[in-house]
Design a protein that fits this description.
Blueprint: H1 15-36, E1 37-44, H2 48-55, E2 60-63, H3 70-83, E3 88-92, H4 99-106, E4 110-113, H5 119-138, E5 143-146, H6 161-167, H7 174-181, E6 186-190, H8 196-208, H9 216-228, E7 232-238, H10 243-252, H11 261-278, H12 288-298, H13 307-337
Parallel strand pairs: 1-7, 2-5, 3-4, 3-5
Antiparallel strand pairs: 6-7
């Protein structure tokens, strides 16, 4: 029988994976957390027992994206130690600078998200990936995937409708298809982003040349900097399944079932965004933060360095999560008053 997912599926090694986790991978991740953070924390938004019930039989953990490697690795570590859940992880093939990287990550419950193809190939890749994810969920497996293709450079985390569209390909009832995934959004908060100066640099390069694109070398540099850099305190905040909110929304507005697909997508994106924005950890930043920003600005090397633009982008990266958090709180208060 032909394996239709051969080129993207995670390699399954059963008990050997569990042994490798506890003898090698997890100790190394904890050591690295001690070296580069002031602690990684697993927290909850709302009723912890409800969240634990939501993830008991498998969940689709959809998160914002801060670090290429560690976002999923540390979440997987925390979930494994607390709930013995090891989610399957989606990794973009743009990160496979060498063949051994792909082999290594696929042996560690990672599946391949193909990127950079033509329009027709992109559609076929999306259908294949959607079918593979559906198979994993039908088997009760948990999955991790970022809410967008690549990280939000400015930390304005908004769910990408195209990602949600990919996840629901091939099914007639959009909302029931979303509910079958059991999406449980997770907020990731880093006190300091070790790649902040690289992201600011990329934004100026893109501003000055709209056709500029990252190279594999740039991706490797981001991976290395993200792994090695100081991050301060790191929080993963689990939030409940979005299914009850979808049910409540449809009960109040049954007409949404017949709305255009792009409107349906946005309705669910908004729910995911509210979960993620409400779950941010907000860090108090004193006067020393100005000195930190100047030190990051000094690390940026460009021939036509626009310091005012770069400083503005660095500030935005740390302001957007707080702005979205405050906005979410205000909107929640207004809803309660209605």
């Amino acid at each position: 029988m032909k394996d239709e997912f051969k080129d993207i599926r995670a390699y399954r090694v059963g008990w050997l994976l569990t042994i490798c986790d506890f003898l090698f991978a997890f100790p190394l991740l904890w050591i690295w957390a001690l070296r580069t953070t002031k602690g990684i924390h697993l927290d909850y938004l709302g009723d912890r027992k409800q969240i634990e019930s939501d993830i008991k039989h498998g969940a689709f953990f959809m998160t914002n994206h801060r670090d290429i490697v560690l976002d999923s690795a540390w979440l997987s570590l925390l979930l494994r130690l607390r709930y013995f859940i090891r989610p399957f992880i989606g990794i973009g093939n743009n990160l496979f600078a060498h063949k051994w990287i792909e082999v290594l990550v696929r042996f560690n419950r990672c599946f391949v998200v193909k990127r950079g193809a033509g329009t027709h190939a992109q559609l076929e890749n999306a259908r294949q990936l959607s079918a593979y994810i559906r198979q994993l969920r039908d088997e009760g497996k948990s999955i991790w995937l970022a809410q967008r293709e690549g990280r939000a450079k400015d930390s304005n985390d908004l769910t990408q409708a195209s990602v949600l569209h990919m996840l629901t390909l091939g099914k007639d009832d959009f909302f029931e298809n979303v509910k079958a995934l059991n999406i449980c959004p997770v907020s990731i908060s880093y006190e300091y982003d070790p790649c902040d100066y690289l992201k600011a640099r990329e934004m100026q390069l893109k501003r000055d040349n709209p056709h500029w694109h990252k190279t594999k070398r740039d991706d490797v540099e981001s991976m290395q900097t993200g792994i090695r850099g100081e991050k301060g305190r790191v929080y993963y905040r689990l939030t409940p399944s979005i299914n009850p909110e979808i049910d409540a929304m449809l009960a109040a507005h049954p007409e949404y079932r017949k709305a255009p697909n792009h409107d349906q997508l946005q309705l669910v994106c908004d729910i995911i965004d509210r979960h993620i924005h409400s779950g941010y950890e907000i860090f108090e930043r004193g006067t020393e933060f100005d000195a930190y920003l100047e030190s990051r600005l000094a690390k940026i090397e460009l021939p036509d360095k626009d310091e005012a633009f770069l400083r503005e982008k660095l500030v935005e990266m740390y302001e957007f999560p707080e702005k979205n958090f405050r906005k979410c709180k205000v909107e929640s208060l207004k809803l309660k008053e209605l």
